[in-house]
């Protein structure tokens, strides 16, 4: 790995203020350009700001801004010419930790290179490698790699300064797989000498799969695995032994330890109500059970967020809670932060404005605001109480003009069996009520994730910029809306999950949002599978389909093959896929009904099929087998293969190339009246 010696970024702040030039047809390159700013972190004192940016360099580097004197040019601390800097953490006020990755890497390079861990002084001196990366061809040529720990180690905790804390030590953990579980063993690492010690970092007997530490690095909670059961053990301050808090079978774990303060008081998530949505409950260290009444409940969504705390030890206090519902939500308990949030929301209305503060509520308080919306990838602003002013630090993607972007909305409709179905819509700019638009149904991957969020999304915005309505249903089986919605998707691939996708389109047509006969169905990974099955099960609804890195052969997914290299473990196939998709041995005939490769002759609509040559999540054999099966049936899909890509496109050139080809394919079938 080679370090770049580029000049300081004089005028970086001025560059950040640049404005885009409006164009009638926005080039695809603008949507899929790399963000100019990826991370921005205040130092513990709030007097410095660390920023990761690719501006002025071919790679993402680390830049430091002195907030005490904004007239000073930003200082480029570290940049490399073959990897990008990610995951920045402050270690006190004068050192920074960071990892690296190759954001352009694909295939084997992307899947075999670890992130490593590096340390640099705030003045840019004494760069050293603490944890190596996996790829020998990346690191072995560099003198920085000669002394670091092996790549199986990772950073777990950066303690704050306090009694008994060595300012030169952090907590790292070594990962290993044992008994089907990924386990981690923590150690103290001295960043100057690179020596490790265990100290008091000992947990209960069992396979430790996760650790929770207090501000000073004392272990307070350990998650362990015993066969198919999961346990959580806690040790509040002043207690010598570990106490078993949770012991539940893995598929049925209902109580999760979310966080713990330095007094030992816990916050847990539990299931609530008929939809079994996750809520936040407080659990005091001296109590045998959590509070009966939820502390935080998000209407219609699982709680998915963080408790915002300030200080450490006895002075630690809760400032507020942040989570994500229809939009981002922050509820402040601190009056000063509540007032500052109100000020930010009044200054930037109709946006999500997330605040991070230092010396919160004090006369010299400093806050960093990340402001974004459905139309804007975001901006970073700095607030200094002493000056009582907001200063814009950066725009995430200066080339994007929010005025040209599409609006995002979410509705909840009733599926054919009555299940509530969230549907996210990206509405083209200028779309008028009562004028149905050609429509793209974009199905998310996973599928056990939440697909829709109120934020700027490159693919959805790109498609909407071409005048198409974009529908993104969070079908049953999607996470984020309660365990009942997630579990309703079990064993429903190609069945009820597929009906949900169709029902979202039928609703949009009924509301005169979607054109009655101009719709294409597209998606990646599971979304690619759903695109294929939509053409099989509901051919009357879709003019065309696009499936990239999509599952096509359920038998190959569920059982694997000696001849096909994939990354699915035997444990996941036995405990996960069998329960959620089906049993490949006992239900073969039932599964073939919803396996695209078995139903290839029924795919009559035009199809664009794409995959990566180095994909191990959904190996290229999926695409090849479907192509061959369709050709055998006398059908010819359009095929696009990126031999140097894995599960998705990481190279900017490939992202733009695919977007252009996708646009041409969709326009061919969406922008003309249906021929008799």
Verbal overview:
With 676 residues, the chain is an alpha+beta fold. The protein folds into three domains: 1-151 and 367-372 and 379-397, Lipocalin; 153-253, no CATH class; 406-670, Rossmann fold. 18% of the residues lie in helices and 33% in strands. Helix 13 links the parallel strand 33 and strand 34 (638-642). The chain starts with 11 loop residues before the first helix and ends in a 6-residue tail after the last helix. Mean pLDDT is 90; it is low at 5-23, 107-112 and 135-146.
Principal-axis shape equals globular
| SS class | alpha+beta
Strand content: 25-35%
What's the arrangement of strands in the largest beta sheet? 27-28-30-29-31-32-33-34
Number of domains: 3
CA gyration radius, whole angstroms: 26 Å
Q: Architecture of the largest domain, CATH level 2?
A: 3-Layer(aba) Sandwich
Overall strand count: 34
As for the CATH topology of the largest domain, it is: Rossmann fold
Q: Please report the first level of CATH classification, the CATH class of the largest domain.
A: Alpha Beta
Q: Characterize the largest beta sheet: strand count, sense, and whether it forms a barrel.
A: 8 strands, mixed
Task: Look at the structure and give the mean pLDDT.
Answer: 90
Distance between the termini: 60 Å
Low-confidence stretches: 5-23, 107-112, 135-146
Entry summary:
This protein has 676 residues and is α+β, with helices and mostly antiparallel strands. Helix 9 (526-537) links the parallel strand 31 and strand 32. It starts with 11 loop residues before the first helix and ends in a 6-residue tail after the last helix.
């Amino acid at each position: 790995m080679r370090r770049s010696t580029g000049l300081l970024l004089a005028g970086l702040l001025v560059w950040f203020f640049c404005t885009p030039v409006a164009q009638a047809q926005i080039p695809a390159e603008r949507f899929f350009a790399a963000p100019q700013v990826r991370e921005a972190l205040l130092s513990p004192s709030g007097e410095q700001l660390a920023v990761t940016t690719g501006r002025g360099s071919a790679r993402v580097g680390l830049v430091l801004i002195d907030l005490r004197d904004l007239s000073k040019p930003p200082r480029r601390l570290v940049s490399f010419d073959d990897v990008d800097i990610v995951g920045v953490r402050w270690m006190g006020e004068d050192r920074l930790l960071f990892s690296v990755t190759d954001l352009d890497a694909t295939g084997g390079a992307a899947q075999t290179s670890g992130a490593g861990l590096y340390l640099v002084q705030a003045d840019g001196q004494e760069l050293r490698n603490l944890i190596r990366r996996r790829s020998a061809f990346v690191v072995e040529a560099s003198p920085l790699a000669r002394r670091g720990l092996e790549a199986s180690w990772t950073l777990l905790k950066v303690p704050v300064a306090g009694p008994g804390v060595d300012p030169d030590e952090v907590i790292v953990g070594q990962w290993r797989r044992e008994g089907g579980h990924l386990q981690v063993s923590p150690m103290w690492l001295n960043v100057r000498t690179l020596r490790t010690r265990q100290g008091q970092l000992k947990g209960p007997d069992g396979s430790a799969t996760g650790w929770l530490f207090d501000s000073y690095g004392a272990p307070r909670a350990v998650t362990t695995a015993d066969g198919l059961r999961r346990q959580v053990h806690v040790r509040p301050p002043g207690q010598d032994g570990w106490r078993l808090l949770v012991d539940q079978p893995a598929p049925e774990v209902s109580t999760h330890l979310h966080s713990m303060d330095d007094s030992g008081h816990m916050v847990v998530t539990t299931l609530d109500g008929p939809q079994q949505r996750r809520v936040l409950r407080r659990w005091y260290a001296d109590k045998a059970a959590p509070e009966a009444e939820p502390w935080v409940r998000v209407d219609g969504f699982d709680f998915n967020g963080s408790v915002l705390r300030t200080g450490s030890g006895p002075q630690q206090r809760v400032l507020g809670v942040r989570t994500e519902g229809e939009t981002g939500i922050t509820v402040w308990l601190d009056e000063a932060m509540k007032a500052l949030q109100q000020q930010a929301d009044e200054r930037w209305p109709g946006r999500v404005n997330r605040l991070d503060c230092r010396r919160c509520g004090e006369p010299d308080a400093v806050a960093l605001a990340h402001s974004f919306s459905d139309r804007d990838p975001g901006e970073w602003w700095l607030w200094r109480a002493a000056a009582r002013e907001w200063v814009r630090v950066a725009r995430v993607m200066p080339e994007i003009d929010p005025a040209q972007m599409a609006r995002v909305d979410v509705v909840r409709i009733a599926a054919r069996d009555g299940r509530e179905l969230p549907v996210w819509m990206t509405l083209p700019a200028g779309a008028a009520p009562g004028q149905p638009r050609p429509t793209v149904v974009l199905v998310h991957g996973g599928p056990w994730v939440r697909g829709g969020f109120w934020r700027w999304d490159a693919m959805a915005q790109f498609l909407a910029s071409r005048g198409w309505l974009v529908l993104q249903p969070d079908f049953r089986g999607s996470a984020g809306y309660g365990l009942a919605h997630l579990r309703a998707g079990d064993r429903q691939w190609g069945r009820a999950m597929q009906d949900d996708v169709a029902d979202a389109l039928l609703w949009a047509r009924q509301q005169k949002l979607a054109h009655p006969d101009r719709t294409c169905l597209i998606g990646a990974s599971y979304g690619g599978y759903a695109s294929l099955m939509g053409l099989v099960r509901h051919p009357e609804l879709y003019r065309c389909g696009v499936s990239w890195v999509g599952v096509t052969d359920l038998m190959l997914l569920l059982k694997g093959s000696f001849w096909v290299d994939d990354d699915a473990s035997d444990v996941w196939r036995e405990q996960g896929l069998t329960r959620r998709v089906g049993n490949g041995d006992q239900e073969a005939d039932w599964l073939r009904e919803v396996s695209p490769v078995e139903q290839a002759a029924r795919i009559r609509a035009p199809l664009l099929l794409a995959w990566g040559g180095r994909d191990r999540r959904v190996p290229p054999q999926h695409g090849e087998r479907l192509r061959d099966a369709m050709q055998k049936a006398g059908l010819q899909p359009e095929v696009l293969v990126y031999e140097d890509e894995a599960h998705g496109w990481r190279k900017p050139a490939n992202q733009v190339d695919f977007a252009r080809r996708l646009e041409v394919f969709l326009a061919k079938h969406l922008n003309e009246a249906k021929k008799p």
